[in-house]
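Session log. Operator J.P. requested a structure for one protein chain; no other inputs attached. Running the standard single-chain path with token output.
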Amino acid sequence: MVRLGAGGGLAVSTVFATAGFAAVSGASTATAAVFSRVAIPEMLRYNYSPRLAAGVVAAGGTLASLIPPSAILVIYAIIVEQSIGRLLIAGFIPGVVSALIYAALIIFMAMRNPEMGPAVGGFTWGERIKSLPGTFPVVFVIVTIFFSMYAGWATPTEAGAVGSFVVFVMALVGGMKWPTLREALLETARLAVMIFSLVWGVLIYVRFMGYAELPAVFADWVVNLPLPPLVTMICILLFYVILGMFMDAIGMLLLTLPVVYPAVIGLGYDPIWFGIVVVKMAEVCLITPPIGLNCYVVAGVRPDIPLQEVFRGIGPFFIADVITLGVFLAWPEVITWLPDLMINPT
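Structure written below.
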């Protein structure tokens, strides 16, 4: 485990903290907004580069797209009619791998330029250990959601309800007042209506596409290309990178999956594996200009850090995401091992 006393240690801690928060919230922009208020002031207080601090939070927030409960994974599962539970379980290890690669990148950057992320001293191990109980509520919610799905005690929907109830009880114990609860319920209702409206729209869209036979024609064309399947897949991912510069992640998936998904299955790729890879591409879109929503969130919460600095700060993390995708392409088992274990525990 990286010590806070090591160069870049506070930024590494922020990455893993965003991963933990993502496992509770499931929303990338919410994660970026929270840690823009919590983590960036601390990093700036210890003389971190504003560019690195903003980049860490913007990129760390994207981990919510993979680590369950991920809203984007649920939308993918509905569109392509795959198991929501398997997809959510499949996102856990890739999410951890992404966080580890981010951490390795930060350590490398701090070693090359210590002024970007200076070491933080003055804390004893006793003080650090005393701070750990404060993380128990988040860890408890994560374990509850994840283990209930993996053990088969609850469906993904039921696991989400159980997790929400646990958070609700913790909030009441923590002294949450009625105005805060009312605002949370209203925000939940707004978000649910938005998601269901999108899903209804895309299901109608898929039906029209099916009547036009466009997905089948496109799939036949892609399968018959004189290229190895891996090269074709890389071309599809490059297409998503370009498209993500002009569209938000959910809109991009809703528009393309009805056409691209049959082609990918025709190439012989596993639908669960492709779901994680394409959602990882959606993560990349959350930090790439000009529509990098997480970057806009960070700049909005921290007006003292210009948007240009935020986009410069995510540059190295974009390279880290490319490396992560390379790992997933080279070793698909990183994605498929855990969901396959659910089916074949022996």
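Operator note: The chain has 18 helices and no strands.
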